[in-house]
Every structure is written in structure tokens, then in C-alpha cells.
Amino acid sequence: MTARQQQTWPNDPATVNLTTPGLPRRMACWLYEGMLLFAVVFMAGWLFSTMGQMRNAMDARRPLLQAFLVVVFGIYFAWFWAKGQTLAMKTWRIRVVDRAGRSITQTRALLRYALCWLWFLPPLALLAALPHHKTSVADTALLMIGWIAIWAVLSRFHPLGQFWHDALAGTRLIDAPAPAAKATKD
User: Fold this and answer.
1) How buried is 59 (Cβ within 10 angstroms: 0-12 exposed, 13-18 middle, 19+ buried)?
2) What is the pLDDT of residue 147?
3) Angle at 2 between CA 27 and CA 107, to 5 degrees
4) d(Cα 81, Cα 112) in Å, to the nearest integer?
5) CA–CA separation, 182 and 95 (whole Å)
6) What is the secondary structure of 106-152 as a DSSP string?
7) Would you put residue 170 in left (φ > 0), alpha (ψ -120 to 50) or beta?
8) What is the dihedral of CA 159, 160, 165, 166, to 10 degrees?
9) For residues 58 and 46, what is the distance between their CA atoms, to the nearest angstrom?
10) How many helices (H) and strands (E) does the chain have?
11) How far apart are the first and last CA of the chain?
12) Sign of torsion, CA 48 52 58 61?
């Protein structure tokens, strides 16, 4: 099956285009998703801090807060990906499906979430190995942005242009149809 073939959604008579969205559109969606996650972080951080009665950011329970945020992100992404799209993906008309073009399961969504950490873990592991007193903010930003750019460009080497974490998870990003226009009453 080629990326341009049509396939029917289960329980949906309409056909869906399995074309991979372009890299600039996927990266724009990725950046927008990051902005939307500020609200998720704020609410989860507020809830954790309030319930744990944390007084400042340097509280000894800070690693617990970080672990809590990883779990909250996992729930957020698994929930929305199992439904097909996050808010950012709806905005950019991108949908996540399995290799056959069907909606993904919660388990596959969680696997995709775990593999999405490949966007961040390699540079974070390298930063952890470097002496902290010699690593500037500029060095950290350059390393993170450089790795993200490399990881994104590596999608060019996938036969369908997918990100490699999607290939490993058995998922793919496709163009989502534009929402149908609502009929107005005269």
C-alpha cells in the first residue's frame, strides 16, 4: 500500500487520505502542542503543589513533581491519541493512526508516548554526563535544538516520511480531513 492510497475508517463510510503531512506542518503542530502543554503543566503543578503543600520550587519533593508531570503527560497524550488527535493536531489537521490507518489503542498510544521521549532523552542524558559548572544555558539550548532538528530531519529517511518513534510504535501521522461545514438555517 502506498502513502497515497485511500482506506476506509472502521464504522465510518468516508474514506481517509493516508498521506503523511509535510515536515514543516508536523513541526509547527509540535511547537503548538508545546505551547498548549504550558496549561497542562500549570494545572498539574498547581494541583500537586497544593495537595502536597509545597512552599517553593526547591522543595525536596521536586523529583516527585517531575514524575507526576511525566504521568500527567502520558495520560493526556494517550487519551487524545486514542481518540485520534490532540487539540494541536486538530488545529493543524493531523491525525495519528496505526499502520493500517485505523484508530490506535490506549496501549499503542502509551507505547507511542514512551517512544516520543526519544525527542528529549538523548540530549538530556548527555547533559547529565557533562559537568554542570561548565554547561551554559546557550550550550543546553544548542544541544536540545540541534538534537530535535536532527531527529526531525531523520524522518526524511523513513519510506513514508514518518518520525522514527512512530515507526517503532506502529503508528503514523496522516492528513486529517477538514471539518465539514455546518449547514445554516435561513
Assistant:
1) middle
2) 92
3) 60
4) 9
5) 21
6) HHHHHHHHHHHGGGTHHHHHHHHHS-GGG--HHHHHHHHHHHHHHHH
7) left
8) -140
9) 15
10) 7, 4
11) 45
12) negative
* pLDDT tens per residue across all 186 residues of the chain: 444 333 444 444 345 678 999 999 999 999 999 999 999 999 998 888 888 777 766 667 778 888 999 999 999 999 999 999 999 999 999 999 999 899 999 999 999 999 999 888 898 888 888 887 777 888 889 989 999 999 999 999 999 899 999 999 999 999 988 777 676 665
> Rounded to 10 degrees, what is the CA torsion of 132, 136, 142, 147?
10
Half-sphere exposure of 80 (CA within 13 A, CB side): 15
Q: Which residues pair with 95 in a beta bridge?
A: 174
Global pTM?
A: 0.80
The predicted pLDDT at position 10 comes to: 47
Amino acid at position 69, single letter: L
Residue 4 cell numbers, joined? 497515497
Q: What is the dihedral of CA 110, 116, 120, 126, to 10 degrees?
A: 80
Q: What is the pLDDT of residue 186?
A: 57
What pLDDT, on the 0 to 100 scale, is given for residue 58?
67
